[in-house]
User: Fold these one by one.
Assistant:
Number 1:
Amino acid sequence: MDNITTSNYNASTRTKIAVLAGTAVASGLCVVNMMRRGNIKHVKNLEMGVREGIDLCCASTVGGLSAGILVDDKKNRKAKLKDSVNQLVGNTFIPFGFLAVANKLTRSYL
């Protein structure tokens, strides 16, 4: 089981709960930080831009990764790191990059 990928690895319930908790805590802290930066009193008044979206995605990924590394076996760390990099690139940087480019183009031509 040296070459572990996310498709053939079934995490234990303990690991899944830890990753969920780490993701939730990191995301919550990120939202609180964004609210403090903008001097906002309620979450419904929070405006999300590209930077805030990337911050939130990165925080949730790093929170889940750190909790998973703390709880899971040492042999699964490499797969977790690869999966986290894949999540950041495929689910964060590429989509938000396209949004930023589209936003810049529409502002310059409209």
Number 2:
Amino acid sequence: MIALSVAAFYGIVLLWYGFVIAMALKRARERAGGSLPWPVLALGYPVVIAGFALDIALNCTLFTVLFLRPPNPRRLTVSARLKHTLAHGSGYRKRIARWFDSNLIGPIAPDHLH
């Protein structure tokens, strides 16, 4: 049980790191007018791709348990699940989604889930 808790914690940490990097790359690309130097792409995109795979994996495992609801095929990522829950959810699910938005996602990308 402790091993699962540690794995869940580190999964969320790695997912958040990937999110921060993805948002930084998005802002950098917007500031640069749509293109980034190849070293930035070479170092950043593998992290984004791995983060996307982790995002789907955590949505199908950890967040399925947290929300007690299987993932929807139209909402494969954690962000999509949280965005939908904030808009249409209630009770503890909405409180969980609001916590993630207020504490992890909103400070980095305030409009990401809205």
